[in-house]
Amino acid sequence: MATPHLTAMINSYCRAFINWSCYEGIPQYDSTLAGYFAATGYQLHLRLDFTTIGKEVFLPLRYFSESGYHVFDFPAVERELATDQLVPIDAAHFLVVVTEYLKDSYPQLRLRQALDNLAAWPAPALLGDVSMASYNACIDNLLQAPAPKIHLVQRLLRIIAILGYQQQADETTLLQQAYQSLEQHQPDHPLLQANRLSIPCELLSFLHGEEVIYRPFPNPLHKAFFSPALIQPKGKDHVYSRYFPKENITVSIRPFDIDRDLEMVHEWFNREHAKKIWKMDWPLRELETYYRTMLPGNAAHSYIGEIDGTPTYNFEVYWVVRDLLCDYYDALPTDYGTHQFIAPVDPKQKFASPSTQSMLDWVFAQPQVGKMVGEGSVESLAALMNKAHVGFRVERVIELPHKKANLNFCYREWYWAKFPENRHITTQKQTTHATTVSI
């Protein structure tokens, strides 16, 4: 099959489902993928996670679009997890894999009809002849529309993707401008409030053979509140450092370095106190996949905290509107969540309060952050007490797919009420690229 069909299918699939991610680099603990990626020379792939049926699909990613129209190189490959065998796939085979994956949820899928009519698959070319004038005209139409019009939203996103791919403009900047224009002229416009947009899923409609099927799609306009400092930090140097005179320690924070930190956190997560609560005591190969699919993405990032230069704790920052947690409360695009794991069990080495204060200092230093969110397991009393110590308040108990959790929030004012001296902390970028704090 021609590659435009496969490109269109995968873009449609990604707009409807969440079991995909970017995959960065050549793995150290997965020899099959390492050999293949080294031979093809690609450092960035799109990974489609079909592990529930024993498969995964990888595509060389030429351009990742913030608007949902990604550009790939080929061939795409499928891996049978039971045998580790890699095989190239075309559009027809991809359709078989998707149908197998979805058959439990959509037993009415008409695979034979889909395969027989594959030539009719809508395969719009990503590249086109558009300009900033097209973008501005689409914004003007949206400003005049009393409610979000699906065709206008789809057209806007496609125009933004083309301008970004052709390097005529930055996608995130255009999405931010679109949000600001709507906010200025129509502050109550539904597009500003929606965490999810109702976008037609052409792939499911095509498989179903009937009416258009709609599925929720993360609102790209929320990029107006995206913090690249938190979710896509540059480099591997320290981003924060603070001296705590009472404890006579310096706490530093740096982005997770998969080559330096993977084996270390693997050992941390396999400690007895981590297994029950953290639940990431996975094999190295699985843990490596977790980080290689998280770090290049736009939903979360991992950090290592150090005490006097010694790695001591790990925390993750995630953008709630790109996380499943947003389905459990009325999340705002300014909400950022954290997970924190302190490795030592010796109370004299934990330094829980300075470590947690440093985490909050770093997150609240970003102007895009409105409030911090947590969802610690109800089984972890220590985590609950640590969060309460710095100002978090429990909203309610929620049932997540993998745990019962305390949904808790913290605003800057609540944090500063606990530690008034921290209100006056200012951050400064140094020539070493670290952020120091002074009081």
From TrEMBL:
Molecular-function annotations in GO: N-acyltransferase activity
Pfam families in alphabetical order: Acetyltransf_8
Pathway named in the protein's UniProt entry: Siderophore biosynthesis
InterPro entries: Acyl_CoA_acyltransferase, Acyltransferase_MbtK/IucB-like
KW Transmembrane helix (keyword) present: no
UniProt keyword annotations, A-Z: Transferase
PANTHER family cross-referenced by the UniProt entry: LYSINE N-ACYLTRANSFERASE C17G9.06C-RELATED
Protein name: Acetyltransferase
